[in-house]
């Protein structure tokens, strides 16, 4: 009995199975099981979904927030924020890094469990938490003034206004539009009340 095989030069040869030797080689592979959320049953669908998730993971550079300098550094891009805008933006980031609903998960992917409603963000305890960042962004006196003037929490109309201005600043200063999806404050519309948050992976966020 003969077996057709390809030799080192690429030519097809027939050899006798009596003298053929089969060796098993170990091939390295990358584990993607828990890192990708694959949907669909057809191979083409699984490949398409997997490629999309890999593209998302590789596209997102690390975001570095420098509170003292009022900047967002993402790759080679630097964005300057007004102090109060930066304070609110950091609050959205901390929802991901410190208040994640699923801390055991390494990747956020499509999860939006950390998104919050405007009434949630306007609570007095949330403002007190934001004031701690504002203290570093500005100084003690301005942080105390903020807490005193808005002791009942930040006005909801003000939060919505700041979200709009934050997104406008990102759109105007960040030339790489592919990153807008991950950095802008996104809205998840629900019946009765919308929820807001940032899509960037929590592992990509550094606050200094």
Describe the structure in your own words.
By secondary structure, this protein is of the alpha+beta class. It has two domains: 55 residues, no CATH class; 146 residues, no CATH class. The chain is 39% helix and 17% strand. It contains seven helices and nine strands, in the order E-E-H-E-E-E-H-E-H-H-H-H-H-E-E-E. The strands form three sheets. Strands 5-4-3-9 form a four-stranded mixed β-sheet, with helices on one face. It has a three-stranded antiparallel β-sheet with strand order 6-8-7. A hairpin with a 4-residue loop joins strand 3 and strand 4. Helix 2 crosses helix 4, helix 2 packs across helix 6 and helix 4 runs antiparallel to helix 5. The longest helix has 18 residues. The mean pLDDT is 83.
Structural class of the secondary elements?
alpha+beta
Overall pLDDT level: 83
Terminus-to-terminus distance: 71 Å
Oligomer: single chain
Main sheet attributes: strand count, strand direction, barrel closure:
4 strands, mixed
Strand order of the largest sheet: 5-4-3-9
The Cα radius of gyration reads: 25 Å
What is the 3D form?
Answer: elongated
Record field, number of beta strands: 9
* Low-pLDDT segments, ≥5 res: none
What string gives the helices and strands in order? EEHEEEHEHHHHHEEE
Query: Helical content, roughly?
Result: 25-40%
Proportion of residues in extended strands: 15-25%
Number of domains: 2
Number of helices: 7
Describe the SSE topology.
Elements: E1 2-6, E2 12-16, H1 43-59, E3 63-66, E4 71-74, E5 77-80, H2 83-97, E6 116-117, H3 118-121, H4 124-137, H5 140-149, H6 156-173, H7 180-183, E7 185-188, E8 195-198, E9 205-207
Parallel strand pairs: 3-9
Antiparallel strand pairs: 1-2, 3-4, 4-5, 6-8, 7-8
């Amino acid at each position: 009995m003969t077996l057709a095989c390809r030799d080192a030069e690429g030519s097809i040869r027939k050899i006798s199975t009596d003298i053929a030797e089969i060796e098993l080689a170990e091939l390295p592979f990358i584990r993607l099981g828990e890192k990708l959320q694959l949907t669909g049953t057809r191979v083409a669908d699984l490949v398409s979904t997997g490629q999309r998730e890999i593209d998302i993971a590789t596209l997102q550079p690390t975001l570095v927030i420098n509170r003292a300098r009022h900047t967002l550094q993402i790759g080679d891009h630097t964005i300057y924020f007004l102090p109060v805008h930066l304070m609110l933006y950091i609050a959205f980031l901390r929802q991901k890094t410190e208040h994640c609903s699923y801390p055991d998960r390494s990747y956020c992917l499509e999860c939006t469990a950390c998104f919050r409603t405007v009434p949630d963000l306007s609570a007095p305890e949330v403002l007190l938490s934001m004031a701690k960042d504002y203290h570093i962004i500005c100084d003690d006196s301005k942080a105390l003034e903020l807490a005193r003037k808005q002791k009942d929490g930040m006005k909801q109309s003000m939060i919505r206004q700041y979200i709009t201005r934050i997104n406008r600043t990102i759109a105007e200063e960040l030339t790489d539009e592919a990153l807008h999806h991950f950095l802008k404050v996104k809205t998840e519309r629900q019946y009765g009340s919308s929820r807001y948050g940032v899509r960037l992976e929590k592992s990509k966020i550094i606050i200094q």
